[in-house]
Please model this.
Amino acid sequence: MHPHFETYLQTQTTLTANEISQVSSMASFRILKRNESVLFAGDICKHKTFVISGLLRNYSTSVDGSEHILRFSPENSWTLDVESYDKQAPSVINISAIEPSQVLMWNKTDFQNLLVNVPALKQLAEQLIANNTHYSSQRMLTTLSASPEEKYEDFTRRFPNLLARLPLRMIAAYLGISLKTLTRIRHAQLTR
Amino acid sequence: MHPHFETYLQTQTTLTANEISQVSSMASFRILKRNESVLFAGDICKHKTFVISGLLRNYSTSVDGSEHILRFSPENSWTLDVESYDKQAPSVINISAIEPSQVLMWNKTDFQNLLVNVPALKQLAEQLIANNTHYSSQRMLTTLSASPEEKYEDFTRRFPNLLARLPLRMIAAYLGISLKTLTRIRHAQLTR
DNA sequence: TATAAACAAGGTCATTTGACCATAATTTAC
DNA sequence: GTAAATTATGGTCAAATGACCTTGTTTATA
Model:
């Protein structure tokens, strides 16, 4: 049904072939153009999304128009606004495609049923939550303690595969520094 | 056995009296002096900790001696270094008492058994994880997008009960601003 | 209660950072 | 393939922030 996703489950989980097609069959497939959104601020996050290919971002826009990025979601990752999804309350963030992307989406009730019926899927979900928790505190610590240059170097080490796919302004919006500062850092690194 | 904690479970969960004493009986009680630690950076986090009374902080110290705070844990909250606990790997943070405190601690294997045997405890744990996840992204967004003054105001709104219990330098270390900036903000607010 | 330690606040100064603007290069979209 | 949009970079400047130091106050502890 969705061969890429089924391979993902095969390699990342212990789901049986039957369970895999059960999970896969509940998904709806969607193609996203560049800048197309799967969630708008103010709306309720009704789906979990798996990225087959492409690249998405979770971000919020301030009143002054500046953008701040909470997460990038490349191929083989999941995304949603977890607070809006959990509480079924309006979201404060947007989720949009940076590159043309292909995604699978499950609505909440379907996915909850799958979690109950497929214990190994629940295990995967818990593992993903744990990874996210671990990374969140690391990121918070870096954000609090590192200089802009250290933040950028940490980013390049952690996401080497994203570097060339992101405009610098989005890296800056993720690190919480200005584009000016980021270009200054890169300039300094060149002449070193 | 630990009446304060048992009341906490009674009011926050659906655990039966029998389950409550089961959970409670596996805890070890500990009294902490001010500045006493339950976890040192470099050590492995072997316990989950519930704070009966007092106030703890999770923090990391940089090479230059500066301190950055990841979380405060007042009475009726839980704390640990979740990454170190999950992976049983050396921690990068310290957990210490800001005030004289009383805590309960469970070691990992005991707590895992409780989670399996007491489904409502697992529910509580998942709820706490969800709360933590939600707050983490809100905090990250504030950290990325807010001015120092907005960060401080957000803190006062969110943790009014902690304000008077914390030295300003710790609030600054939590917000990622300097003590100087924080005192400037407070001074400006006075004369307004 | 006395002594030491921790803390808040203020002064000064250097510097990093961001805002604003212009330009050039690259990428996107039709 | 061409026009339009987005993007990266650099210049200039002002302002916010932090580093360092001192002082007075509060808090802990023995």
Q: What stands out?
A: The interface with chain B takes residues 60, 62, 66, 68-70, 82-83, 86, 92-93, 129-130, 132-134, 136-141, 143-145, 173, 176 of chain A (CB under 8 Å). Chain A has a mean pLDDT of 96.
